[in-house]
Structures are given as structure tokens and as C-alpha cells.
């Protein structure tokens, strides 16, 4: 086959770039993801546009930076005007479906303002950010409707109940909890329980069930074209894995934390504020790291095993040969590096993501199994899909760029820097500690070939030399020797802000057409609006 | 009365700030607009956000900069997500109506994508950018549906037909044309005809009919609260006035063109490209200026006379005392200054607008009849209305600020600079002459207390010292002595770009609430999502 008919867009949640063997992890072997890398291209400098789920994913689904799509944090609705994957692919006859997580939040207020009918296909499509929800599983079902208004109706919860896993919240009580010596439920939310096995057998766990649904979907489609977003919630917390994955890795295999030496610590006020968060304080304790990280590794290993099953299936039915496959993550996890937990700061453990792309066509043979050091971004996925499928580029909206030329061994002009954003307005502890106004909590990362520059509202910038200091231990933000580098990167940020796409309701082609008709008129007529004529 | 019940938002089209006697015109006496200024505050440094109709007006109606609302030129649809005046006022029970022009373009593609019902009240409201179209009159009815899809159905055209003014296009053939010696129609589009009277008696002209409709609306409302956007198409071209206004002013009363001395000319490439436009070449000829400008003045005089009638009416029925009145313009007109015609460049004749605000409350007595030199912007109107009416500020969307504190003699912290934008992607002649890509045609004005800085994609900036050179005849864009000033203003632009409101689907109050609930939990419960807990 020489054409791409389908797209498989695989995303893990909270998977660090360096927790895969193809990216160099010495103990965590991920042969199936490595097999995809050997059959495609592995990008070593891929960045997410935002280091938490909602912003990152909306960048993936819209092909636009966070400042453009406006979803600055989780639970923020996407504007109705934003086009998503399905808007681009569905009109071309490509069934565009979701299996797993999107973290989409319905924009109910906007729909009400426009008097859209709740439950209509258009409303549902907006609520699912353009996907057909073949199986939606956001994987977070605490007792609050902000996070999932369909909590009671979650298909995974139904599935568990059908299997006899009862209770008010089977997702929590079975799939994300362990059991104590006396049968008591030990919550997976509590990191002290991370070393215990989940109460659920592996075959009913989220990762396996999600993979089952993906295989179902692909099988059902037969030869009909599709785009599937296979979006695993794991290794995202709660950090708890079903047997045997809870015990595959030992404390000995936990890598040392990456932290500045005493006296050389990062003393930036925003960084310091994040260090005071509960997860940061806990992950700064070795006891926590040693209890959590082996399980984090086990959860990744489980995903890898399941991807092996999926890839085998695709090789058996021909889909391996007519499907563009992308594997990535929405963001990483500090796991105690830099004295931080979670991911809400723009250092490499959070903002760096794995990115592996396999183009099955012969034109990509030249790069198969190679490593690519170009700066890639999460927003590149959608333009890559459009390019692979031969669809128009929509360059008045899309801010990413197609990776296909790189996969085909070409030397396209490329970006000089990647940008990520984070808005800590939503993090009341950090914001209040810093005393910043809600409109003044923006952080920007500008990552060039060599440097990473972090800009803050109201604070000095930070600078790291990733060539000399890949672990970002030495902040050059005040070093006079690097003043010119900082200025250069501030200039990049300025250029980036100026270049954001802010004319999304009219295509460039239409602008060109109108501009000419308006001023020159049709060949046989006068100008449409004859202004300025004597 | 001590409360404001109503808002009258008067806008002229293409009215230069300096073509009113209260702003210093020596020959054009506008006693009624001056009377408003004497009863309110006259802002001497008010700027539009964009120098053509669509962008400027969408900034007025959304309270947001052009880069935020995305309407970069005429005929570009407003995104459906943008809130407009009516969205803010109507829920408070304030009838929000239009009499005259908005230059709104229906966002039909977006409405179809959401399956909105054509003709539904929500669709109509979006098409009218939030106004109830009591009488819409965009004033441009050439033979092309881009500019007015309701051409045949325009109420003003119907009115003319009802009076016996027939023909394919009565707006053009009667209201905007003169008559030759042999009864032939001489088009108002041709500036050579500007000195002739329109074929229509004054009482049926656009300016009078528009005023009639405003008086009808205000009368109908009685004591019920309202916001009326009274939006005159004049003195916008076609430059042709009904008798006696076509002959009120003589060639002797045309002020000399403001132009650099030979050898000291502005040599910026973008400026030079605009100088090559047909209207610029024509307005550079004295013959054209002398034929057009007296009529331009006559059209303004007619507006002033009509406003006198309206203000008398409001004083007679009590509305003068409970209505906030704003008088402004959407942009100016070069009229040959700087060798330019039209308005598509960011010098003072185009970007400076008159702005007069009358707050009827006693708290504003302290400033009545005074002049205010604060930098004001078109986007300030909407926040001013909300403030005057006691409605919430919507500060996650609105980028302007209320002028009420200034009207009440307070000393609020104020902006350091005003910003305007222009995108010449739509002007094929300039763009093609410069060889710029469609995405690289943006211009920005940063106007501080003393200086004006103009930034261009791909070209050097310009700088004018408005204190020493108020006519902008000496471009300091390459003067080494002003390097620090240019850098300061580039910094302003950088700050402005960073500060644009890009989180419009969630209010600041909601962010604060969620941020606290998310991290701290309710008093009696644990954190909602117990991340990072040991």
C-alpha cells in the first residue's frame, strides 16, 4: 500500500519522555513502543504546549497554542469557534473517534447563549471536542461534578458494575484502590498505598479495557477510513497498578532525583511557590519517591504490553500498513525532580514529551528507525494528519506544522524555538503565596536549539543552557554573561506573540481573493467599491 | 435625577477628530456637538483600535482589541464566542438597539457548523452583533453581496422607493448621486462630482432619516431603559451632500494639506506602498482636495444640525437628564494629508477620533465642560456603559476601562499607552507591491503620552514625537538619539501582547473559586482531587 487511510493518535497521560527504554530509561523496558520507534521516527525534542491535561490536549485537538484556544487550565471550556480534529477530518469521510480521555469541558454557557439544543449531535460533538465518543474515559471520578458530570454514567463504571464490582464509586474503590489486611479499602489517592496491587484483576483495569475498545473500533471499521484517538489515562495518578505491574520494579530501580546541589538552588519566587505545594513537599521525601516510582514504571510497562497487543492486531489485519501512528504524552511528571511533584512548571520533566511517528509509506523508509532532533510541538500532530491524508492545511488557524517532510527525509525550514505556557491563576496556593492578581500569573517557555528561557509576569526570567546543563540545575537568569541570550529569547517570545493566528474566521485564500476583487474589480467591471476615483 | 437609565452611543463614520469646532476647526462650526462637549468631557487623545469600519466597530461593540475579536478588516465575521454590547445589557432589561451602521458581517459558516436555525432570534442577534436592528443602514450598497446581502431589502431603500425615488439602486442613484445638465446621473463615487448637490432633498437624506429613526425609538421607549447606538454613515464617502450642505463651505475654507517638506519625506516602505493607492494619488492633487473637502465639511455640518434636533428632543422629554451620551467616530480620513487618502495607515488623521462623554449625574458636574488629556480608546465605551449602569465589569473579556472615574474628577491609575492595529493583508495592491505574505502584514501603533511608535512585520519601526511634531512630519524611526525611546515603546507593545485577554470562557471569580476548592477543599471535606497526598 502506498497511501495513508487512517490515523492512530496514541496519547498517554503524565508520561515523562525519559521513562521509555527507547528514550534511555535503563530499567524500564518498553519493547513495543521501541518497536514503533524502530519502524518510525523518534523525536527527542518534542514539547507540549501546556503542562496539564486540558491545555495540552486542546492544543493537540485544535493545532493551536494555549493562548489561541484559551483553555488555560483544566475545566475551562473551549470556545465554540475553535475547530478540532473532527471538524477537519469528518467532512473528508473519515470517522473520527475517541477511546479514552480528552479532559474536554462542555461549554454549556455558550451553547445556551446560542440556544443550541442540549443533546443535539452538534452539541454533543462540541462537548466531545469534535470526537465521536466511542468510549470516553477521563479516568478521574472523584465526587465532584466539575470533573465529570457523567460520573454515574461512565461506560467504564458500568462495565465494572456489570462484572460485579459494586459500590458508590467502583472506579475508585476497585480499579484505583488496594485492600488492607482486614479487607478495608486503601485509596490509591494516598501515595503511601502505591506499592500495593489494585483490587481489580489486570484484565479489567483501565489500560486493558481501553485497549479492548480500541481494538473493537478498528476491527469494526474494516476498510473504512478512520482516525482514532487512543488516549490512556495512565500512568497518571492515582499511582496504583494491578498485579503483577505493582511489583515489577523495585526501589533499587528508582533513579536518583535530579536536584540542584545545596547552595546552588533555583531561587526563583514562582518556582519556590510551587515547591510549597503538598505534592512537591511529599515528592521531596525519598520515602515517597521510592514508593511511587516503581508503580509509575509498572503502569507504563502495562501500557507498553497493551500496545504490543494492539500493534500485533494491526499487523494481522493490514492496518499497520495504511495507518499513520503517533505515540505521545500530554505532559510529564516531576516525580520529585527539582523538589517538585505533579507537572505545573515548565522544566523538562513536565514539558518534554515522547513523540514517535510512523508513516507507513515507502517515502518514509529513508528515516525509519532514526532519531530526529528538530523542535517538535504537540500542535504539530493535527497538521501532520492533514498532510498525511492529503487534506487542506487550514493555515489561518493551525499554528503547528506538518512533520511529514521530516519523516520523508526532506530539509524544510523549521522553527527556531518551541513555546509552552502555564497559567497559575488557577493554583490558589501559589498565586496567593506570591500575591499575584489573577490576570498576572502567566509563564512562558521559549526553548531554542540550545537554551530554555522562562518568562514570568512580574518576575525576572530564568535561563537554562540545555547543552551544558541538560538537567536545568543552573539558572542563568541573572548571569550578566548571558544578557544577550536572554534578550534574544525575549525577542523570540515577542515574535511568537505577534505571530499567533488571530484571524480565524476567514481563510488566507479568501483574503487574497477579496483583496484583489475589492481593489482591482473583475476584469470586465469597475472596482466593487469605487473609492478614491476622480 | 441622579441615576443613569439609558445610553446613547453616537458614532459618525470617517469623521476626523479635528473637523469639529470644539476640536479647533476654524471654519467648520458644530455648535450642537460643542454643546455636548460643554455639558460633558471632551477627550483630546482618543484613539480607535483600527482605522477601518469593521475592526473599529467590533472593538467598540466587544470592548476588545482587534487582535482579540479577530475582525481584522471589513467583511470578516466576528467569532460567535465574542460577547457584544447586547449580551451585557439585555439581561439587565435594557433594550439595546441599532439605528444606522455597524458593518457587521454574518458568521454564516460558524452558524451552519453549529446547526443554528437561520432566521432564529439568536442567529439574527449574532448577525447584528448583539443589537436589535431597529433601523440598520450600513450606507454602502454597491452591486455586490459581500457588502450587504440585504441590499434589496434595506429599509432606507424601501423608504426611498415609497417616496417615488425609483431605479435599480435608489441609494446610489438619488441619495448619493448628482444630476448633470442633461438629467444624467453623476455618481457620488466619482470625486469630481463632490461639489454638486445630491439628487435628493435634504429631508430624505441618510443623515436626516437616521435621526428620525433615533427620535422614533427614544420616543417609543418612554420611561423604559434603553441603549441606542446611533451610527451615522456620514461623512463617509461617497462624498456628496444634499443642498444646502453641498455649498456651505468654499474652497477658501479648505485647510492646507499637512505634508512633509520636500526632502524630509516619510520614506517607510509600507507608507510608500499606501501612497500608491488610487485614493492617495488622487487626494495628493489639490484639485481633488478642493472639490471634496467642502462637501466633507458640509456632511459634518448636517450631522451637527441633526444632533441639535435630537438633543432638543431629549431635553424636552427628560432623556437629557437620565442618559449617558457618548459622541465619537470609528476612524478619521486623511483627505490628502501625508499624501494619503482614506484611512488605512496609523497616523493621527486616521487613528485619532473625537470622543465626548456626558454623564448627567451631579457627580460629573466637577468636570463638565472640561478637556481631558488621558489616553482614551474606543474599547473604553462598553466598560463605561457597564459602570454607568451599575453592571458587572466582565474583566476576563473586556480590555477597555471605564471613563466614569475620570468624569467624576477622580485620579485613577491610567494606561501608559494606547494601541491600534491595521492588517494590510486585505489590501492587495500594498501587499503585492511589498511582496509580503498574507500572514505578515500587521501594523501596530503604540501611542504614549509623548510619542507614537509604529511597528511593522518585517520592516523597521517608525517613531514620532507628538510633543515636538504633532503633525508627524519627522520620522525618528532611525534616529540613534531615540533608540531608547523606541526600545521603551517596543517594550510596551510586548507588554500589551502579553496582556491581551485570552481566557474568555471562564470568569476571574470562577477561577478564584475553583482554585480554592480544588486545592483546599470545602471546610468540611478533603481536597476535591486529593493529588499529592501521602
TrEMBL record, chains A, B:
It holds the Pfam family Sulfatase. One of its GO terms (cellular component) is cytoplasm. CDD domains: PMH. The keyword Hydrolase applies. GO terms for molecular function: metal ion binding; sulfuric ester hydrolase activity. Keywords: Hydrolase, Metal-binding. Residues 5-390 form the Sulfatase N-terminal domain. PANTHER family: IDURONATE 2-SULFATASE (PTHR45953). This is Alkaline phosphatase family protein.
Amino acid at each position: 500500500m502506498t497511501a495513508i487511510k487512517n490515523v492512530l493518535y496514541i496519547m498517554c497521560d503524565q508520561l515523562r519522555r525519559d521513562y521509555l527504554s527507547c528514550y534511555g530509561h535503563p530499567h524500564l523496558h518498553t519493547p513495543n513502543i521501541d518497536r514503533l520507534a524502530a519502524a518510525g521516527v523518534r523525536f527527542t525534542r518534542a514539547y507540549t504546549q501546556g503542562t496539564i491535561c486540558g491545555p495540552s490536549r486542546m492544543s493537540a485537538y485544535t493545532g493551536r497554542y494555549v493562548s489561541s484556544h484559551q483553555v488555560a487550565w483544566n475545566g475551562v471550556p473551549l470556545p465554540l469557534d475553535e475547530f478540532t480534529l473532527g471538524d477537519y477530518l469528518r467532512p473528508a469521510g473519515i470517522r473520527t473517534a475517541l477511546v479514552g480521555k480528552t479532559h474536554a469541558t462542555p461549554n454549556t454557557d455558550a451553547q445556551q447563549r446560542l440556544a443550541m439544543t442540549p443533546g443535539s449531535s452538534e452539541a454533543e460533538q462540541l462537548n466531545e471536542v469534535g470526537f465521536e465518543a466511542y468510549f470516553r474515559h477521563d479516568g478521574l471520578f472523584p465526587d465532584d461534578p466539575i470533573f465529570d458530570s457523567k460520573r454515574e454514567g461512565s461506560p467504564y463504571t458500568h462495565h465494572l458494575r456489570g462484572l460485579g464490582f459494586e459500590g458508590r464509586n467502583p472506579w475508585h474503590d476497585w480499579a484505583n484502590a488496594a485492600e488492607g489486611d482486614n479487607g478495608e479499602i486503601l485509596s490509591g489517592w494516598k501515595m503511601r498505598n502505591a506499592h500495593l496491587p489494585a483490587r481489580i484483576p489486570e484484565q479489567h483495569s483501565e489500560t486493558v479495557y481501553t485497549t479492548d475498545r480500541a481494538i473493537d473500533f478498528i476491527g469494526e471499521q474494516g476498510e473504512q477510513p478512520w482516525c482514532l484517538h487512543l488516549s490512556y489515562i495512565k500512568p497518571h495518578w492515582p499511582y496504583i497498578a494491578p498485579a503483577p505491574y505493582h511489583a515489577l520494579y523495585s526501589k533499587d530501580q528508582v533513579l536518583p532525583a535530579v536536584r540542584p546541589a545545596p547552595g546552588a538552588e533555583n531561587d526563583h519566587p514562582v518556582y519556590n511557590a510551587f515547591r510549597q505545594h503538598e505534592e512537591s513537599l511529599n515528592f521531596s521525601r525519598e520515602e515517597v519517591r521510592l514508593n511511587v516510582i516503581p508503580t509509575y514504571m509498572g503502569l507504563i510497562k502495562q501500557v507498553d504490553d497493551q500496545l504490543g497487543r494492539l500493534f500485533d492486531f494491526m499487523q494481522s489485519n493490514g492496518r499497520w500498513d495504511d495507518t499513520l501512528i503517533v505515540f505521545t504524552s500530554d505532559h510529564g511528571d516531576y516525580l520529585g525532580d527539582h523538589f517538585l511533584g505533579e507537572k505545573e512548571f515548565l522544566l523538562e520533566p513536565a514539558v518534554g514529551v515522547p513523540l514517535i511517528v510512523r508513516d507507513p509509506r515507502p517515502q518514509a523508509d529513508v528515516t525509519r528507525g532514526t532519531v530526529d532532533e528538530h523542535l517538535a510541538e504537540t500542535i504539530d500532530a493535527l497538521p501532520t494528519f492533514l498532510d498525511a491524508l492529503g487534506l487542506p492545511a487550514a493555515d489561518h488557524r493551525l499554528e503547528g506544522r506538518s512533520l511529514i517532510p521530516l519523516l520523508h527525509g526532506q530539509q524544510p525550514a523549521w522553527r527556531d524555538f518551541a513555546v509552552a505556557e502555564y497559567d497559575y491563576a488557577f493554583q490558589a496556593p501559589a498565586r496567593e503565596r506570591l500575591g499575584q492578581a489573577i490576570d498576572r500569573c502567566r509563564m512562558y517557555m521559549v526553548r531554542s536549539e540550545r537554551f530554555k528561557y522562562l518568562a514570568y509576569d512580574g518576575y525576572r526570567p530564568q535561563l537554562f543552557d540545555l547543552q551544558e546543563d541538560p538537567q536545568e540545575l543552573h539558572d542563568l537568569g541573572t548571569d550578566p554573561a548571558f544578557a544577550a541570550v536572554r534578550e534574544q529569547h525575549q525577542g523570540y517570545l515577542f515574535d511568537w506573540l505577534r505571530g499567533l493566528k488571530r484571524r480565524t474566521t476567514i481563510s488566507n485564500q479568501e483574503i487574497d481573493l477579496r483583496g484583489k476583487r475589492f481593489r482591482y474589480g473583475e476584469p470586465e467591471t469597475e472596482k466593487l467599491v469605487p473609492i478614491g476615483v476622480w
